[in-house]
Design brief:
Helix 1 crosses helix 8 and helix 4 packs antiparallel against helix 5. A four-stranded mixed sheet has the order 2-1-3-4, covered by helices on one side. It is α+β, with helices and mostly antiparallel strands. It is built from eight helices and four strands. It has two domains: 75 residues, Glutaredoxin, CATH 3.40.30.10; 133 residues, Glutathione S-transferase Yfyf (Class Pi), Chain A, domain 2 (Up-down Bundle). Helix content is 53%, strand content 7%.
Length: 230
């Protein structure tokens, strides 16, 4: 007998760092879902725009509950509340949960955001570059790297994999290419390598391999990520 289709559909693209964040959470919890890949510009996809007019990925559609859930951290919170799987990504203890949410925001706002500024600027045509914005983004990444290095050196993360780790893996994957940290921030580099060893993270990277050459800084990515053995 065939299995019923999962109630959950994730609208996403395998190259998107924010989509990785939710994919990693789904893989960690072993939550059944259907991936709906958005090719081209999301804003030009009528079905996707009808679902979520902001047209930013990822978006989760829950057919069973009639819910459309945007924003990565909210999606993961929703999954934990309504579709708890084999992994609890947000601790039950309120203090620990608040700490996880803090570091989730750090990776999204202070690593992902400036990293994406650098990526976007590389895509701009000559004459439309933003040198001041690029300098600010690079300075912001330096501050974030220092903050994370201090945190990880003095208070290593708990062994449990959390929402913050889901945010960290894609943020650091792309940030290492646009502004390397491995040679200058040993605690952050060691944490990043532990994330790369995680099966859920490796799965997200493998699924992105056909698209990695599209990344504007693809020449700076570690060549192991292009290997079929990764």
């Amino acid at each position: 007998m065939s299995q019923p289709a999962p109630a959950l559909t994730l609208y996403m693209h395998p190259l998107s760092s924010y989509c990785w964040k939710v994919l990693i959470a789904l893989y960690e919890a072993e939550t059944p879902f259907t991936a709906q890949v958005i090719n081209g510009r999301p804003a030009e996809d009528e079905a996707f725009r009808a679902l979520w007019p902001v047209a930013k990925m990822p978006v989760l559609h829950d057919a069973a509950r009639g819910q459309v859930i945007p924003e990565t951290s909210v999606i993961i919170e929703y999954l934990q509340r309504h579709y708890p799987g084999s992994a609890a990504l947000i601790p039950a203890d309120p203090g620990a949960a608040l700490d996880v949410r803090l570091w989730d925001r750090v990776f999204d706002l202070y690593v992902q955001t400036p990293m994406q500024k650098l990526v976007s600027d590389r895509l701009r045509p000559e004459g439309q570059k933003d040198p001041a914005g690029v300098a600010d983004a690079r300075a912001g990444l330096d501050v974030a790297y220092g903050l994370l290095e201090n945190r990880l050196a003095n208070r290593p993360p708990a062994s449990d994999f959390t929402l913050a780790d889901c945010a960290a893996a894609p943020a650091l994957f792309y940030a290492e290419a646009v502004q390397p940290f491995a040679a200058t921030h040993p605690a952050l580099a060691a944490y990043y390598e532990r994330l790369l060893a995680r099966p859920s993270v490796r799965r997200a990277i493998r699924e992105a391999q056909p698209y990695l050459s599209w990344f504007p800084f693809h020449e700076a990515l570690d060549r192991r990520f292009f290997s079929a053995d990764f």
